[in-house]
Structure to design on (650 residues):
């Protein structure tokens, strides 16, 4: 927030209060409010009864945890939560493995057609997901993957973005490290796993965060590929609260509040990598 | 331990040939330095020996076995890189032990080898540290330790001291030399620093543009350089070169007060270069003499560099800039005329056209 006036006589070394800084802090404050307000309303609504939902006070008149009890005692929610966890974790691990393996190969090996492969992978970044959904669906349908966990996961098991990201990072790994290992007798897979991978942990962290969050909040493809309720992921399951009878906002908000817990945990666990990872990747979170 | 033989080794990158048919035989236990300016092919040659680059043509033998198509690990050589290439995510102990990763040795034996290497290199107290907490010299020692534990048949060093400051470089130079004397392994050492090559190597290979110019002991190269390049490259400050031609009274050297006696080797060569090392060219207060066995260089002092043990005097002569030694460290003032003398037996003669050596200018008895 805006620095208090006493900062004017602050010890030397502190930056003086300049108009530019006031504008910057004000904009950041407004941005913060815009981002935090929906979250506050989510938590607030989750503490309200059905009758109080349209009462827009931020602090409910009579807060209650009844919604949480109801959602958590409903076996479906727990199932969806576990489904989302399974999908997000499996896809994240798969991306960490395959994206970095391919990225490493493209960064560190010279072979005929390398650029063609790279451009082919990169070009898929330019195709919107909505266009891919139909081929994915046809493929999954023909191969009998619809309505399975694998059906939800397969399109994201390896991504062009992750491959590109890892390639860029592996290019920064000095060849000396790899050559030293080669002389020490390691095979190429061992060099990748034992030498190159530990050197790109910031990139792996960034990739893990992006992939986990992307899959945890994924809605469109899980909605299309799965029909059995017991295979729903959390976002799909929560949305079903809205269509069953009437829209149960307090239930949706309670589920959504619970759904933010894993993402919060990921952020807390990896926060020191997040800023670094985002900066290194040159991306917005 | 092993011999290393290069027979007509060629390296091409696409259509560019960077190493042109090298022939070199390195004896078992010998310390050979490859020196030359950047891009002379010395590192490429080392990398071919290591197996990191394919050999485009020719035969490479290690221990008598042709290894052209052998993977690096089958060659049983160890390499120390300029950037150390020690892994930041591993401790010193793990880094050294990494050299034994594929050795298949039992754990206790690995640990014993690591401890032994650490003891020899004075790294015992640092074994649990990570590279980030080490100085440049310590890092380089870790890299050497990783190479040592494997008991390789040859050590390859690729400019290992380039990233260290001058003082540390001197210290590590001695350490590597001692290590070689102790282990006695065949060593190929690439450097662009002629001082390193001179002080460490049994034999020096001078390279330029992918070719070997001269192979010899440090004193061979210093005393009898085969060409202008080697003459200038070996020794600091670099050898002075003055253009010369035949006159009625002997060799007329530009920048010299009087002609000198022309040696037999100079006969038939119209344009020559006379080389004199600054250490052999000493300033004098006495005027120019007419002794045909003494080269008398005259010029104006442009700079004086006191180095402690000796003082260098930079002269501007009609033959070009020259560096001489101040007698008894008493240098003439800048701007003053000065005379410097060298015995003709200390002179090196070169053909100015081919830049090849014509031999030493023999002093007439």
């Amino acid at each position: 927030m805006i620095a208090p006036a006493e900062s004017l006589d602050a010890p030397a070394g502190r930056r003086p209060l300049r108009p530019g800084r006031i504008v910057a802090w004000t904009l950041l404050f407004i941005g913060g409010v815009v981002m935090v307000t929906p979250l506050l309303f989510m938590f607030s609504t989750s503490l309200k009864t059905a009758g109080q939902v349209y009462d827009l006070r931020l602090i409910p008149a009579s807060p209650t945890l009844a919604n949480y009890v109801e959602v958590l005692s409903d076996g479906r929610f727990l199932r969806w939560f576990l489904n989302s966890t399974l999908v997000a974790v499996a896809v994240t691990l798969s991306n960490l493995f395959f994206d970095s393996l391919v990225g490493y190969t493209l960064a560190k090996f010279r072979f005929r057609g390398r650029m063609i492969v790279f451009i082919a992978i990169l070009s898929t970044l330019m195709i919107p997901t909505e266009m891919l959904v139909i081929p994915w669906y046809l493929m999954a349908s023909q191969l009998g993957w619809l309505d399975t966990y694998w059906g939800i996961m397969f399109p994201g098991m390896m991504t062009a973005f992750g491959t590109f990201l890892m390639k860029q990072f592996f290019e920064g790994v000095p060849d000396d490290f790899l050559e030293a290992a080669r002389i020490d007798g390691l095979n190429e897979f061992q060099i990748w796993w034992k030498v190159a991978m530990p050197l790109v942990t910031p990139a792996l962290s960034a990739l893990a965060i992006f992939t986990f969050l992307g899959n945890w909040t994924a809605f469109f493809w899980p909605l299309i590929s799965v029909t059995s309720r017991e295979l729903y992921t959390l976002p799909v399951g929560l949305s079903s609260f809205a269509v069953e009878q009437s829209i149960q906002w307090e239930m949706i908000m309670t589920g959504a509040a619970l759904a933010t817990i894993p993402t919060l945990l990921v952020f807390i666990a990896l926060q020191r990598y997040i800023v670094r990872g985002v900066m290194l990747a040159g991306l917005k979170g | 331990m092993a011999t290393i033989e290069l027979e007509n080794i060629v390296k091409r990158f696409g259509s560019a040939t960077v190493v042109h048919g090298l022939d070199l035989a390195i004896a078992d236990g010998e310390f050979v330095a490859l020196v030359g300016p950047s891009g002379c092919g010395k590192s490429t040659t080392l990398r071919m020996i290591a197996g990191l680059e394919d050999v485009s043509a020719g035969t490479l033998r290690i221990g008598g076995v042709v290894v052209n198509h052998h993977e690096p690990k089958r060659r049983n050589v160890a390499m120390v890189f300029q950037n150390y290439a020690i892994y930041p995510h591993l401790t010193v102990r793990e880094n050294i032990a990494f050299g034994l990763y594929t050795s298949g040795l039992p754990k206790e034996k690995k640990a014993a080898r690591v401890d032994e290497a650490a003891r020899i290199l004075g790294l015992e107290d640092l074994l649990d540290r990570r590279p980030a907490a080490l100085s440049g010299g310590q890092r380089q020692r870790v890299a050497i330790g990783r190479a040592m534990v494997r008991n390789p048949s040859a050590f390859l060093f690729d400019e290992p001291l380039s990233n260290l400051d001058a003082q540390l470089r001197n210290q590590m130079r001695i350490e590597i030399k001692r290590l070689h004397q102790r282990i006695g392994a065949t060593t190929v050492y690439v450097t662009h620093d002629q001082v390193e090559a001179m002080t460490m190597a049994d034999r020096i290979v001078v390279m330029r543009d992918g070719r070997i110019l001269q192979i010899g002991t440090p004193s061979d190269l210093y005393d009898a350089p085969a060409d202008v390049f080697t003459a200038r490259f070996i020794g600091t400050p670099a050898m002075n070169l003055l253009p010369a031609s035949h006159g009625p009274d002997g060799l007329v050297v530009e920048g010299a007060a009087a002609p000198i006696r022309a040696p037999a080797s100079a006969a038939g060569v119209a344009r020559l270069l006379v080389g004199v090392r600054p250490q052999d060219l000493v300033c004098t207060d006495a005027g120019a003499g007419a002794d045909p066995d003494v080269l008398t260089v005259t010029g104006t002092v442009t700079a004086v560099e006191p180095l402690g043990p000796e003082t260098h005097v930079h002269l501007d002569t009609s033959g070009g800039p020259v560096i001489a030694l101040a007698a008894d460290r008493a240098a003439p003032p800048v701007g003053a005329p000065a005379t410097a003398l060298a015995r003709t037996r200390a002179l090196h003669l070169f053909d100015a056209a081919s830049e090849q050596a014509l031999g030493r200018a023999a002093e007439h008895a």
